[in-house]
From TrEMBL, chain A:
InterPro entries linked to this entry: Ald_Fedxn_OxRdtase_dom2 (IPR013984), Ald_Fedxn_OxRdtase_dom3 (IPR013985), Ald_Fedxn_OxRdtase_N (IPR013983), Ald_Fedxn_OxRdtase_N_sf (IPR036503), OxRdtase_Ald_Fedxn_C (IPR001203), Tungsten_al_ferr_oxy-like_C (IPR036021), W-dependent_AOR (IPR051919)
Protein name, entry field: Aldehyde ferredoxin oxidoreductase
Residue ranges constituting the Aldehyde ferredoxin oxidoreductase N-terminal domain according to the UniProt record: 6-205
PANTHER family, alphabetized: ALDEHYDE FERREDOXIN OXIDOREDUCTASE
Amino acid sequence: MIRDYFRIMMVNLTTGKTTIVELPGRGDYLGGAGLAAHLFDKYGHVDRDWDDPEQPLIFAIGPLTGYFPLMSKTCCAFRSPYHNQYTESYAGGKSALSLRFADLDALVVTGRAKRLTALCVGSRRVETRDVEYLRGFDAIHTGRVLRKMFPGSGRRSILRIGPAGENLSSYACINVDTFRHFGRMGGGTAMGAKNLKGICILGDRGFGLPEGKEYPKLYKEIFKQLTTTEMMAKYHGLGTAVNINPLNELKSLPWKNLQQTSSPEADGISGETFADDTLLRNAACAGCPVGCIHVGFVREQFQTNNQYLYRQVGYDYEPIFSCGGMLEVTDASDVLRILDVIEKEGLDCMSAGVALAWATEALEKGVVSTEETVLDLKWGDAETYMKAVELISRPPNEFYALIAKGTMRCAERYGGQDFACVLGQEMAGYATGEVFFVSEGLGFRHSHLDSGGYAYDQKHEDKDVKRALDFLVQDGRERIVLNCMVGCLFSRGVYKDDLLAEAMASVGYGELHGSVAEIGARVQKLRWRLRLRMGYRPDKVRIPKRYTEITTWKGPLDTDYMEALRAGYAARILEMGAPVDEPGDKEDD
Amino acid sequence: MKALRAARMERCIGCHSCSLACARLVHKVLSWNKAGIRISSSGGLSTGFEARVCLSCHPAPCAEACPTGSLTQRRDGGVLQKKNLCIRCGECAKACPVDAIFLDHEVNPYVCLNCGQCVPFCPHDCLEMVELPKREAEGGAR
């Protein structure tokens, strides 16, 4: 199984043909983010829109997936319906190990099925099934049906979309094994455009291990570090929801569509409150002993005479920020009820929550009326927000059809761009300051995970533009290395470059073309090149006015500093993504 | 004589660390199938997890079904395995009443040998090694 090339399964839904491709480049790209960009460079179409059937939908894992703990994520890459440019999203669940044990470094889906289809792949299996009868089924129900359709309980991964993906909302997600998601940038929409309702990946093989004691010894050491050190405690303890209280204290918690950066009500949706009142249990991605997935429960009385039902809903910091604080919903169970509807419809919860926050303020300010919103959206009104989520997923009018394409698209039509909390896409939950807003606004994935800009804001009061930009580029590059491995970013304190190189060597991937840091830089450039070739103009990005109106723990936002960062980061991106002179050098400059 | 028990599976988070440890340390493979303990959901992740693991029967139906002596009865329950004697007939897996023996695509059987090497890799202490009770002999004597 240890090999110096990539083994790719290509499934074409138009022709029904499947091919296995053996592609060189392990030493250049490692896997994951690097492999996905390499594959898009090879099979993607810069001159065709995101919904062209021939655009590839790519799922890629890394060289250490399954070999070491927390190497448990999959990189999903595609041309985004949100901005029509190349993008990535990451998810865990069992997807990564299932691909590993299906003996695939990547699965690439091209073409468009004639009718709604489910795909099942494994080491000795590839099959498509007509599932037109699942049209309109929610993501949870779809998972239940697909589980019955394909074998392999516990050692398979089931990816599926809900109605939002079928209806081509720009921020439909791919649900992975019930509690994980390829969330941002419309991966579910890319699946919907292919008429692909679900993918089952069977992890049905095993492989020999390297000889000698080096590998099991290193595994044991890393396992120990990841399970006993304090650095992972927050992830399995309260989970990322632990961030609510400290960010609120730092006046960095986006609240009420960022009209505020803190609230005395935040404790109602704090990690502590969720743990005390709603936490049912923890779960883990396959191959990760940390168990950061927090599953809460809500119960509802559906009939008199004590007739109750209960539902299990996964929660994290970002969903709580977007469907709690941003909507001023301050009851933990209410947040979970909104998330439950979003889950079923198959939307990205951050985009959906932030979009509804904008809509509420737009209605409040008279920018739109209930003629557009249909519902009388009010801060804190969970019941109405639950109905509004369904309208985003199944738009009844132009307003919802546009908001399903993105908050800014809707604001451009109706007004209210100034208070649209959009940094490339609907924002992540860190109102920490200038560095984060620029990092997310201009960043590759418009994600808080592109780099630790939010952490930089919290640690630095100085306004040294060069230092901040150096940090964004350098930290971004380090994260790309882990994204090529497709390790969980929670493990970034343990998996430094040296340890990654040691781990690679222990399983026989010693021959790399440069250090892992150099490979990170190579992939960083390749990814930016792809974005720029598809029309990305970082120098044209503007940060909406709302971000200049806030006050954090450092005081009012410094617009001059933010502008200098914006211009400087745009220049760095243009530099990193500059075309290479020699066509032959395209892939390994 | 000690045996493995998946005693607290309601704590299981589905990380598969136990199966991966068994495959890595006992069978020298990278797998979550080729192991003496396999984790599956009991009908989707919202319903929790089950462990497919040897219950240390005595007499062990798998050993009784084995035509070549590759699997033999352990004194107090469970089996010993000699892989070189296996002819890959798959009869052991057919005989197991609790689906605890995994057959790979070459019909190699993987069964728990009660060595306990998976136990320290469970982060939620779901697994334990327990002393098997002395079995009841035929006729009721112990």
